[in-house]
Amino acid sequence: MRIGVVCPYSWDVPGGVQFHVRDLAEHLIRLGHQVSVLAPSDDETPLPSYVVSAGRAVPVPYNGSVARLNFGFLSAARVRRWVHEGDFDVLHIHEPATPSLALLACWAAQGPIVATFHTSNPRSRAMIAAYPILQPALEKISARIAVSEYARRTLVEHLGGDAVTIPNGVDVGFFADAEPKPQWQGGPEGHTIGFIGRIDEPRKGLPVLMKALPAILEAAPATRLLVAGRGDEQEAVAQLPPAMRENVEFLGMVSDEDKARLLRSVDLYVAPNTGGESFGIILVEAMSAGAPVLASDLDAFEQVLDGGAAGELFPVEQADALAASAVRLLADPARRADLRKRGNGHVRRFDWSTVGADILAVYETVTDGAASVAPDERTGLRARFGLARD
Amino acid sequence: MPTLTTVIWIVVALALVGVYLSWTAGRLDRLHARIDAAKAALDATLLRRASIAQELATAGVLDPAASMVLYQAAHGARQAEEEQREVAESELSQALRAVFAESAQLEAVREAPGGHETASELSAAVRRVPMARRFHNDAVRAARALRSHRTVRWFRLAGHAQPPLAFEMDDEPPPVLADRGHPSQG
Prior knowledge:
Number of strands of chain B: 0
Domain Glycosyltransferase subfamily 4-like N-terminal (chain A): 14-172
Protein name (chain A): Glycosyltransferase family 4 protein
Pfam family, one (chain A): Glyco_transf_4
Distance between the termini of chain A: 25 Å
Low-confidence stretches of chain A: 382-390
Strand content of chain A: 15-25%
Protein name (chain B): LemA family protein
CATH topology of the largest domain in chain A: Rossmann fold
Radius of gyration of chain A: 23 Å
Strand content of chain B: under 5%
Oligomer: heterodimer
Largest sheet of chain B: none
Keywords (chain A): Glycosyltransferase, Transferase
CATH architecture of the largest domain in chain A: 3-Layer(aba) Sandwich
């Protein structure tokens, strides 16, 4: 199958959607499909052979933060040429409701289009205003995929219609087979707790964990907290009594390999996020690596953890509850072993073999009885007056 | 020459209205094409499901009672008239759920020669029905929303085409076939 994938966010900036697109493309290529990914990127960034650059994304303030987006005649022309040259059987666009590459692709193409909705943003003013413009583009999408039941609900409320739920994929084997690192492992003298995420992004919840840490250390003084992620380390521990700062180790940005090894090593993985999550891939990665998970009870996390069956939940932003649960889990090896086992069984549905098969099933369903993807000539004004050249 | 200016403006306005109408008609046309494709895909998945169910029913791997129930439902689904189709397909879903209520039946199918492929084909088929139906009904909803738009109604852009209908049925797959946590299902 010839598959065109549109990634709306810059390839050179790490992010959940980009990683998903990369893993999906590589998984499909391994299965013998022809995949071309269109993504914004700087011209200097080296790209994998399957990625086609759509030009540089322009930073613009949008929806409360600075987003890097593609628009304008040049981008639209590039999208159109890519669609024309690719001659795809199916076009898979990500985040079609952002004013970027995905929307341009939706506008420029016709034929079987599959779209994945990743975020679960509250309804924005821009989206309401843009609805009449958005609708003609969105109604070309033959199949909608939401990454979680939560994302699906937002989609149904905002745009109407329906979607199938297919979770984000994880290479379970990569995490399950990682080699634990002895210095990150807990021993009989003290356990280790893991945290991965931007230190200076409050929504990732490190401040909540820092607030809970004194109580955890009081019950288990030799416990070590391992923090992997970018940000100001001094500021992060500023609230902590100086004597306890030694129990926090900052690892900085870690490679994918080290991330897997860290998750394999720790006795407990804590996800104290306070919001803004629509899926929670890190929880799946932690479970794949066999780490017992303690997470805040965000809708998305609750769903990934099977309503609390595959990992423990605590009320969001409640540092006391987090501390109590962590202390209880660290003192209870049997419960942690139980969580490891449950997590291990639960993550199979997130493995790329399962997720990839489901996505391919969607492709096959929409390509059944449909022509292939082609540039949509109706959108050009010249075409309307019969003046279009081929 | 105020009259000439007025005439020019009227012509421009009419041209713009014409472009808008042609564009809306194009949208509607494309939505109808999308419904046709989705309907064809839904037909194919339903037929695939009924065929595999019928194959299983006549293969002799299930007990006679289960075989008869399954055969009856699969046959009914394949032969149903357009108006009875939703009911017949729902009955096939119910029959499949009843037959595969316990995992022992699925194990029996898997153990038969070539049964592993049949079992995975069946689980793929029962999972694709809700998918195809959702895509179809989503297209129908989008078309109905556009058709109810006043521009479309006033200018009769939808022509004489019948309003598209959603396909309503019970498509809940049997739990043992839908469980994605099971390693042996691809």
